[in-house]
């Protein structure tokens, strides 16, 4: 048999799984055979579907502890277990660090750092009691690995998740593996807001060594792999999906440099 990613019989929660990056992740996990529960503040018009199955939705604001608990309870009542948690919900509007209010900074940290930690803690409780343990994934960003001008608190939160990935992988082993998937630019329903029309998106994509920005399914493929037995020895690590990264800015200004 060919080497395959098989998540049949596995139960996954994808926070913010109804649109954008989360939708691509949900679809790939469904395609690999998992049952998928998604949560968000609003029910998406169309639920993610793939592999002949459809994700279930339960409403939740992941910044609220009791709502995290409700998603976990819903999943356990419906499917009896939690094998995979993908902490995907997140994001931040742009704001200058010098003038953004303390309240703004706190709210960004709450969504992008505290909520994933609280959800991970809840999922770990269930996973430690399962014979096959579980896998916790954090969807992070290159913003947590390089300067993040305009989104300082967001970058700090993502860097915090990289630290948590290493620490939780040690504390919760051997039952639970913990992995971050750090994305560069991804094409979502919001891309036009950041990069303009298709021409703008293509121009931005041309700055990436692989010649395009990522599709949500690219992140989904990495998550399906990281969640599977094919990644049984992967933990405490950050998978970097940035298409080759960013060309150092100084090269454009420097003279006598080759490409
Ligand atoms: N797009 C990119 O270029 C990019 C790059 C690197 C990393 N990422 C990361 O990928 C993840 C998803 O980003 P995205 O671009 O797909 O964002 P998006 O299009 O804005 O989608 C965010 C999802 O999260 C949900 N969500 C937001 N706040 C929530 C809350 N308080 N409680 C529960 N659900 C909530 C949203 O649903 P509701 O609004 O219904 O709650 C939505 O389903 C984020 O962690 C982001 O940092 C994205």
List keywords for this structure.
259 residues, two-stranded antiparallel sheet, 40% helix, binds NADP nicotinamide-adenine-dinucleotide phosphate, alpha/beta, globular
Could you please describe the fold and organization of this structure?
The chain is α/β, with parallel strands linked by helices and 259 residues long. Helix content is 40%, strand content 17%. The protein is built from eight helices and nine strands. Strands 5-2-1-6-7-8-9 form a seven-stranded parallel β-sheet, with helices on both faces. A two-stranded antiparallel ribbon has the order 3-4. Helix 2 runs parallel beside helix 3. It is globular, with a radius of gyration of 18 Å. The termini are far apart. Bound molecules: NADP nicotinamide-adenine-dinucleotide phosphate (NAP). The site of NADP nicotinamide-adenine-dinucleotide phosphate (NAP) has 28 residues, from helix 1, strand 2 and strand 7. NADP nicotinamide-adenine-dinucleotide phosphate binds at residues 15-16, 18-22, 39-42, 60-63, 88-91, 111, 139, 141, 183, 185-186, 188-190.
